[in-house]
């Protein structure tokens, strides 16, 4: 078999850090490198490599010179083809902050009160080797605002995975994490705060989900993760890569199977036999899953009742000051705000992220808003987070779109000192890009405090 017949990872620009290539060489993996400081025909060739079925993933670094090429007349057509080739394929694009962020955004995230002694990389890293032969101005020169906005808009409109970075150390850590997750076929990573409603039941449900995957012919899926004092991280990997249609379909099918186990066991048995499970084994599995599902349903119901009672006690003193309000009315309000005690409430991406405004009897709107805000924090497990983290979560709930789950997990990882260092650095980059995109869309009011918070939450400079 020739090199052309083997799978490979693609590095574009200076993305091939020593840590990343060493890891690939140690595992015997093939990688290729292409430069963007080349003619348009080479860019077209890079686009073909990105789209190749042999390409397992692409890591790319865009410099200020690359931004200029993308918008130039000679490169514009091939640049569009290159960016389009990345859509829907595993990739990670690095852009230095001096290129990606506006002057205002860079000033906003600076702080005079940084404890430099706590930072990991406190020595200057700006020498000639850092530029890989590219001039310093390509990285740190002035980028015209209209050029920056045009390219950033092209990246944003395609939903590309862009990470702004400050140092090569930071970029190398993120690239190595990307390669490791890709080599192990990460399906999803979920952070569950210890105070989140139904947090204790999440492990049980995901364990059932993993077993169901194995019994229905998806034996390559494995579950890993770790605990911290503030929460638990769940990770699912697959030997076969991401399933067609994503994990959402798997969760939907699994939820329907659990319902069938309890309400229509014959239907559940038939579903299993279709996948190749013997009828006797299928009947045993359905019976066991039905028992565990009923146990889980009861646990969810009791957990919800415990949380409702705790919240009710929390607001009883306030009720005395309002007057003319019955305890039953408060229970109605809390019951409407708490998510139902069903398995879907703890499936990743299914938990409530916002609450609709409500009016209950004669309650003052201020009191209703106070109750709603407290319930939301209790449900999400964010009671002990600081104001900046809360504000970030609110922005994510409003503007996060399909990335809400990943961005919310990023906030919790950033807040948790016990989370893995590499994951926290990745989380910081993801949130910096999200905030920068909000600013570029004209939604940057008050973001300076959040940008400063995100920049200095992890000790890497």
Number of helical runs? 19
Strand fraction equals 5-15%
The main sheet orders its strands as 2-1-3-4-5
Alpha-beta content class: alpha/beta
The overall pLDDT average reads 78
SSE order: EHEHEHHEHHHHEHEHEEHHHHHHHHH
Main sheet overview: 5 strands, parallel
Give the overall shape, derived from the CA principal axes. Answer: globular
First-to-last CA distance: 44 Å
Number of domains: 2
**Helix coverage percent:** 55-70%
Sequence stretches where pLDDT stays below 50 over 5 or more residues: 112-139, 348-363
Radius of gyration: 25 Å
Number of strands: 8
Could you explain the architecture of this structure?
With 461 residues, the chain is an alpha/beta fold. It has two domains: 3-183, Rossmann fold (3-Layer(aba) Sandwich); 186-384, no CATH class. 55% of the residues lie in helices and 11% in strands. The protein contains 19 helices and eight strands. Strands 2-1-3-4-5 form a five-stranded parallel sheet, sandwiched between helices. Strand 1 (8-12), helix 1 and strand 2 (30-34) form a beta-alpha-beta unit. Helix 1 (18-27) runs parallel beside helix 9, helix 10 runs antiparallel to helix 13 (279-322) and helix 12 crosses helix 13. The longest helix has 44 residues, at 279-322. The chain is globular. The two termini are 44 Å apart.
Q: How would you sum up this structure in a few lines?
A:
This is DUF4062 domain-containing protein. The chain is 55% helix and 11% strand.
Topology:
Layout: E1 8-12, H1 18-27, E2 30-34, H2 40-51, E3 55-62, H3 64-71, H4 76-86, E4 91-96, H5 97-100, H6 103-109, H7 136-140, H8 145-157, E5 162-165, H9 168-183, E6 186-193, H10 199-215, E7 221-227, E8 231-238, H11 247-263, H12 265-274, H13 279-322, H14 327-337, H15 365-380, H16 387-399, H17 404-415, H18 421-440, H19 447-455
Helix pairs in contact: 1-9, 2-4, 3-8, 6-19, 9-18, 10-13, 11-12, 11-13, 12-13, 13-14, 16-17, 17-18, 18-19
Organism: Fodinibacter luteus
Protein name: DUF4062 domain-containing protein
């Amino acid at each position: 078999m020739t090199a052309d017949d083997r799978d490979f990872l693609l590095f574009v620009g200076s993305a091939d850090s020593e840590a990343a290539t060493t890891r690939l060489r140690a595992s015997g993996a093939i990688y290729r490198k292409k430069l963007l400081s080349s003619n348009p025909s080479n860019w077209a060739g890079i686009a073909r490599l990105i789209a190749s079925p042999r390409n397992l993933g692409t890591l790319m670094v865009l410099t200020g010179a690359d931004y200029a090429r993308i918008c130039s007349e000679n490169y514009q057509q091939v640049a569009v083809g290159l960016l389009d080739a990345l859509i829907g394929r595993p990739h990670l694009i690095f852009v230095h902050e001096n290129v990606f962020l506006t002057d205002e955004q860079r000033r906003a995230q600076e702080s005079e009160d940084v404890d430099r002694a706590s930072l990991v990389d406190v020595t200057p890293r700006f020498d000639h080797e850092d530029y890989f032969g590219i001039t310093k101005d390509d990285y740190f020169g002035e980028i015209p605002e209209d050029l920056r906005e045009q390219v950033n808009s092209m990246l944003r409109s395609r939903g590309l995975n862009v990470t702004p970075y400050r140092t090569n150390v930071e970029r190398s850590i993120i690239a190595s994490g990307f390669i490791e997750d890709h080599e192990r076929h990460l399906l999803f990573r979920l952070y569950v705060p210890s105070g989140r409603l139904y947090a204790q039941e999440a492990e049980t449900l995901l364990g059932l989900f993993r077993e169901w995957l194995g019994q229905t012919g998806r034996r390559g899926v494995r579950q890993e993760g770790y605990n911290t004092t503030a929460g638990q991280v769940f990770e699912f990997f697959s030997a076969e890569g991401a399933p067609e249609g994503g994990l959402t379909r798997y969760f939907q099918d699994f939820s329907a199977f659990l319902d069938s186990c309890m309400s229509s066991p014959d239907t559940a048995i038939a579903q299993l036999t279709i996948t190749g499970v013997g009828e006797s084994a299928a009947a045993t599995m359905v019976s066991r899953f039905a028992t565990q599902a009923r146990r889980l349903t009861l646990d969810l119901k009791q957990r919800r009742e415990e949380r409702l009672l705790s919240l009710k006690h929390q607001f009883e003193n306030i009720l005395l000051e309002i007057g003319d309000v019955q305890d039953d009315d408060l229970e109605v309000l809390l019951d409407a705000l708490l998510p139902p005690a069903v398995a879907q409430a703890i499936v990743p991406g299914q938990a409530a992220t916002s609450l609709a405004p409500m009016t209950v009897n004669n309650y003052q709107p201020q009191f209703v808003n106070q109750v709603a805000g407290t319930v939301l924090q209790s449900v999400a497990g964010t009671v002990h987070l600081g104001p900046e983290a809360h504000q970030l979560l609110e922005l994510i709930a409003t503007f996060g779109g399909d990335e809400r789950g990943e961005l919310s997990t990023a906030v919790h990882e950033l807040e948790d000192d016990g989370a893995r260092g590499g994951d926290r650095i990745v989380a910081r980059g993801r949130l910096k890009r999200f905030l920068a995109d909000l600013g570029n869309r004209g939604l940057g009011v008050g973001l300076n405090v959040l940008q400063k918070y995100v920049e200095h939450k992890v000790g890497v400079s």
